[in-house]
Amino acid sequence: MKKVLLSSLALAVTLALAACSDNKQPQTESPTAESASDTVTTVTTDNVLLQQYAGPYGGVPQFDKMELDDLKPALEQGMALNLAEIDAIANNPEPPTFANTIVELERAGSTLNRIFTYWGIWSSNKSSPEFRAIQAEMSPKLSAFFSQITQNEALFARVKAVYESEELATLTPEEQRITWLTYNSFASNGATLDAAAKARYAEINQELSKLSTQFSNNVLADEENYVLYLTADQLDGLPESFVSASAAAATQRGNEGKYAITNTRSSMDPFLTYSTNRELREQVWNTYYNRGDNGDEFDNNAIIKQLLTLRHERVQLLGFENYAQWRLQDRMAKTPENAMDLMMRVWPAAIARVEEEVADMQAIADAEGANITIEPWDYRFYAEKVRKAKYALDSNEVKQYLQLDKLRDAMFYVADRLFNFTFEPVPEGSVPVFHPDVKVWEVTDSTTGKHIGLWYLDPFARQGKRSGAWATMYRQPTSFDGERSALTSNNSNFVKAPEGQATLISWDDAETYFHEFGHALHFLAADVEYPTSHSGVRDYTEFQSQLLERWLLTDEVINQYLVHHETGEPIPAELVAKIKAAATFNEGFKTTEYMASAIVDLLYHTTDPATIEPDAFEREQLQALGMPEEIVMRHRSPHFGHIFSGEGYAAAYYGYMWAEVLTSDAAEAFAEAPGGFYDEALSERLVKYLFAVRNAMDPAEAYRKFRGRDANVEALMRDRGFPVEGE
User: What's residue 42's pLDDT?
Assistant: First the structure.
């Protein structure tokens, strides 16, 4: 799905990761930022996790030398070093200035942030029981450490003095903004509380850290433990490419001769779309949507109740009525009421469209004599039949033209046309990687020859890797302490084809591929001085990546890169026409399953948790909303990692919809431009105001500079094929 990195200080406050999970959605928050400066603290040690990045391209993570036994001692030493840096800033005898307070905070924590890069790999890409034991032990210690920083009274006094000083008006716009962001990070996270309240605030953070870790580990346990192994007589309807990949997945798990349906979206989704075995579809559906909800040792319902209760208590210490008020105060929506209002403007049209979609499916089922009523495990299967009937569009036929490597080349083409970025593979073995599947490219500005950074790609699913798709940074590009180039990574869970065969993916997965690459381009294109300018506004940071999806359907990409994996023939024009004609097909399902999750998220965080029993609350709220029985939330509460494995999207999952309004409006600008989606003047504004500026400028102001006005929701309604009042 279609996550934002902060400076050392903001990282300490929020432990934010950088992008999304599942199809177009982000996920667990793991600390993975890299400070702009690698030279603040010199560490002499054999522990590679504590060492500065080494090798070419300004230094790169030594993934080939990372050892899990080094993680705990590295974290302990990294925290000690960071606290020493913080104490030096807080106890500086000189009067507080931007240079000796805010800039020094930007420099602090480089060693610890490098450690978090490795932590992020173990957490997301190669988890293990041994790592999860360290994670469970260290997460509350890290929380206590971060509280020491945010509750350092002398430090906050200096930050506050700079924020309220006459010097502020003399600073550059970016310097003024990061001063405000730094001050607000302290003020919003307990720095203004009295001693007793601060102590309780820190205790709550530690408890939340433990619970969030347990929540995510429970979900991962269910994903790893529930694998369905099929025999050859149970494969009816499944595409050959999916069958081959499932056979390879079974062999990898020691079940050669069988076919593994793993408990991840990338395996579940195609199985439910094509399998003609309704009983197996129901089994796979139940297994996937009941992750964390099986009444066993990995059940998450009690943890949800504890998380909500502790979050509510914490924000009450700060004077807020509910968690959502606190969370949204510095977002584009500003208030939970504004966020809910946006969704309620779209919700009626979405569920009305679902009713139409179900009627179409039921008609086909009745005509076939199936003698069934459409259930959730039937939706994808009969939606595919409707797609074929209405548009003569076969998803599996389209898939034959969607080769993973060719789509990657298409993304490179778009990056060159819009950003002047070229991607060249680095020599094999010159940059360390953490798995043989990971490949690395050097990114260069084609007009100046300037080195921009490195792009890592980890595309395939495997045991120990969390589900979904996401982007992250291993080093932020900054310039305040010398030029630092970007190190960024895209991560997916595509089912790998057998050796020698092309990996084929669905159209939705191709959109996700472009989406996550949009996050990487947002990192690579950054032109800011300070690490804090990489911090994100959650209901804005998905916009750039959502927008990049639109280039998948441009003629330039279609004509050059969508070629048949066996014949090499370009995708037929009539098939492209069908894809475009069906662009809003099944939009009721997509919008409703997402919005149900977003609305329930807001309801969880605006309701007194004393009245909430998660399992019943989810059912009751969806019933009150008129949720169609044939659809469930995209992320049911017991595995809703976006909001319960961390806090990055808590009370903020609506942000995808907020960003979609911007996306639809910006896409209309390109559609109307003389040069279309490759219009040079508009592309220049796109890069300058929507990508390069990051969070060095207020997002609303940045969008107005790009578009000349604010975005409007009508563009979103048109995009989704929903009725627009007055049109």
Answer: 52
- Domain match, 43 and 153 both: yes
pLDDT of residue 4: 29
Same-domain pairing of 154 and 65:
yes
- How far is the first Cα of the chain from the last one, in angstroms, to the nearest whole number? 31
Strands of 146-195, DSSP E: none
pLDDT tens digits, one per residue of 444-492:
999 999 999 999 999 999 989 988 899 999 999 999 999 999 999 999 9
User: Torsions phi, psi of 493, nearest 5?
Assistant: -130, 45
Q: Are 51 and 74 in contact (CB under 8 A)?
A: no
Residue 362 makes CB contacts below 8 A (sequence gap 6+) with 373, 374, 382
- Supply the pLDDT for residue 12: 35
Distance CA 643, CA 27 (A): 8
Q: Which residue has the tokens 């070419």?
A: 56
**Residues forming a β-bridge with 62:** none
| DSSP-assigned beta bridge partners for residue 423 | 443
User: How many angstroms from the chain centroid is the CA of residue 617?
Assistant: 26
DSSP string, 398-436: HHTT-BHHHHHHHHHHHHHHHH-EEEEEPPTTSS--SST
Name the packing angle between helices 195-225 and 129-150 (round to 10°).
Answer: 160
Mean pLDDT of 328-348: 94
Instruction: Tell me what pLDDT residue 330 has.
Output: 87
Same domain for 120 and 246? no
The alpha carbon of residue 659 and the mean position of all alpha carbons in its chain are separated, in whole angstroms, by 13
Structurally, the chain folds into a number of domains equal to 2
Does residue 97 sit in the same domain as residue 62?
Answer: yes
190 in a domain, yes or no?
A: yes
Specify the pLDDT at position 20: 52
Same domain, 20 and 130: yes
Q: Are residues 196 and 66 in the same domain?
A: yes
Which H or E run includes 288?
Answer: helix 278-289
CATH code, domain carrying 207: 1.10.1370.40
* Domain hosting residue 140, numbered range: 8-219
- d(Cα 224, Cα 219) in Å, to the nearest integer? 9
For 639-658, the pLDDT digits (tens) are 999 999 999 899 999 999 99
**75 domain-assigned:** yes
Instruction: State how far Cα 199 lies from the chain centre.
Output: 32
List the 451-460 sheet strands across, edge first.
421-425, 439-445, 451-460, 486-494, 470-475
- Shared-domain flag, residues 41 and 167: yes
Q: Do 108 and 78 form a contact (C-beta atoms < 8 A)?
A: no
Closest by Cα among 451, 10, 421, 405 to 188: 10
What's the sign of the alpha-carbon dihedral 532, 34, 466, 546?
A: positive
Residue 355 is assigned to a structural domain of this protein: no
CA distances to 239, 508, 564, 565, 721 from 575, rounded to whole Å, are: 19, 16, 12, 16, 20
Together in a domain, 210 and 269: no
HEC profile of 359-398 = HHHHHHHHHCCCCCCCCHHHHHHHHHHHHHHHHCCCHHHH
> Among 174, 193, 219, where does a domain finish?
219
Tell me the C-alpha distance between 318 and 321, whole Å. Answer: 9
pLDDT at 536: 82
Contacts 24+ apart (CB under 8 A), 439-447: 442/57, 443/486, 443/524, 445/420, 445/421, 446/416, 446/420, 446/421, 446/422, 447/420
Q: Is 516 a catalytic residue?
A: yes
Assigned domain for 351 exists: no
- The answer to whether the beta carbons of residues 43 and 219 sit under 8 Å apart is no
Catalytic residue chosen out of the listed positions 207, 442, 516, 542: 516
